[in-house]
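Re: [help] complex structure
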Amino acid sequence: MKRGWGVTLLLTVLGCLAMFGPSTLGQAGEIQATDTVLSGVPTPKTEDIAAKGDPGAELYGTANDITLADSKKGLTVADLANQVGQNKIAINFVWTLVCGFLVMFMQAGFAIVETGLIRAKNANHTMMMNFMVYGLGLFAYWVCGFAIQMGGSAPIANLGGVYPLNQEFVLNLFGKPWPLFGMKGFFLSGATYDIGVLVLFLFQMVFMDTTTTIVTGSCAERWKYSAFCISTILLGALIYPLFGNWAWGCGWLSQLGVNFGLGHGYADFAGSGVVHAVGGLTGLAVAMQIGPRIGKYNRDGSPNVIPGHDLSYVLLGCFILAFGWFGFNPGSTLGASGNGCLRIGSIAVNTMLAGCTGSFAALLYMWIRYGKPDASMAGNGLLAGLVAITAPSGFVNTLSAAIIGWVAGILVCLGVEFFDRVAKVDDPVGAISVHGLNGLWGVLSVGLFADGRSNYGGSWNGVPGSVTGLFYGDAGQLAAQLIGIATLVGIVFSLSFVGNWIVDIIVGQRVGAKVELAGLDIPEMGALCYPDFQLKAGDFGGASAGVAVPSLAK
Amino acid sequence: MRLLGLACILGGWAIAVAGLFMTTATTGRIFIACAGIAVTLYGILGMLNGYYLERAIWKK
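Output below.
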């Protein structure tokens, strides 16, 4: 029955279009005639629904449900057009919000992955860092971060335009415009108290939160909590939003195509660079400053394994993160209706594939190299694949996604070995390799693998056509991606390093040796995570696998 | 040493961006950007990390 009403309505409207033709439909007189026809569309009687109900879902969802501007006039073309517009925006709002909720849930995944990979004596401290990045980051982002990042990003058609976000600070240098930061949306006040802006804020906020939570992993087990708080606010208020603006807020990197003819400008679909590389590089900057944990390195510089305390936490957390990534990447279309948004299916499959091949590659690498299929590195391989596919997920085909994930799985193993043995930067959870290294790989892979088949409204970053990488004929896109990478390692790292250097001078970044040996839970947080357990302070042995590869114990 | 490292890192970025003005050839821009990234990485891993490794806690 329901289908019957729908078909009747559709045929009636199509009949109108055929009678009057699209070229003349816009004229006022003929719209009146169409309104007349529409008013005759048969609909189920409300008395019938009142008497019998609608257990078969046959009577709801008809012309009865279209909001009428004037009930006396009945259904008009204007009502129909407005309802279509409202439905599009509603679909996109719901899609973006639900995807944002999924990304928010990734915080739980990060929290238990990181907590599982550190020792039990620091579990409360690590969990509380992951918990409070949400509050601290959100506050900083609401105050100024969002405005700096997205304050000049209008229009965004999928969310109704978000027109209040219309002011960008632009520096004119060397004959070119350099958009540097947004200037609308501080405290979400004034005209930015706008439903579209608020949806965009929620979605962007949870992305920023992901960045801040990456740093807590690389600095776990020796980071002073007060320093963590200040550092997180700094990252959420300034550093992340600046690069976010340059990439996503119509900033200078996104305009490399328009201003310098480099492909479609820096393209980062869901944030391998904006989110993960920024987090990973900030993690590197802070981890270098605070130094390795006591006992991580011997006097001759050889590393020791410091195993985590709960491998089941680690793998469960990885699954939660993989689930949340379906909000991260497909949600970055900012809609499910209009402007190529139906590619969400392709993006979701790419996401799934890259995570799969990433974990597979890491597992095989560890098995072949060390004789055992290391569980924590398989988990990190999954995350590495997901991180790497984040930027290209909207621009590549499934074969490329599988290759990108596979390379990421190998890269994360090599990265962990490099930072552990060569650079001697202590990263308890492998965050620098997972997010930093593979974030950069993801950015690069857009410039290589983008197949030129995506179409998000006919252009990207103001350049007509589809994003196309080197392997499909556009070397300019690769150049744009390389400029993005140079900016990440050059500017973002420097800002993070200097900012945290100042934090170190003011409050000190590292806890004292006694606190570190005793475990941070009591001295820093005032409570143990596991008060009923007997903890072994300073115990570096154990049978379970840490993120450090097994042979590092030798 | 830390300031020198930072200067090296920022210099690497400046090289990459300067490539946009030095040539209009895409291959040239790619090459210059790669050179800039290499300089930046040397600043991070060679100079800055080297500074911290010299003062590492496990050497005391």
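Residues 23 and 45 of chain B are 29 Å apart (CA to CA).
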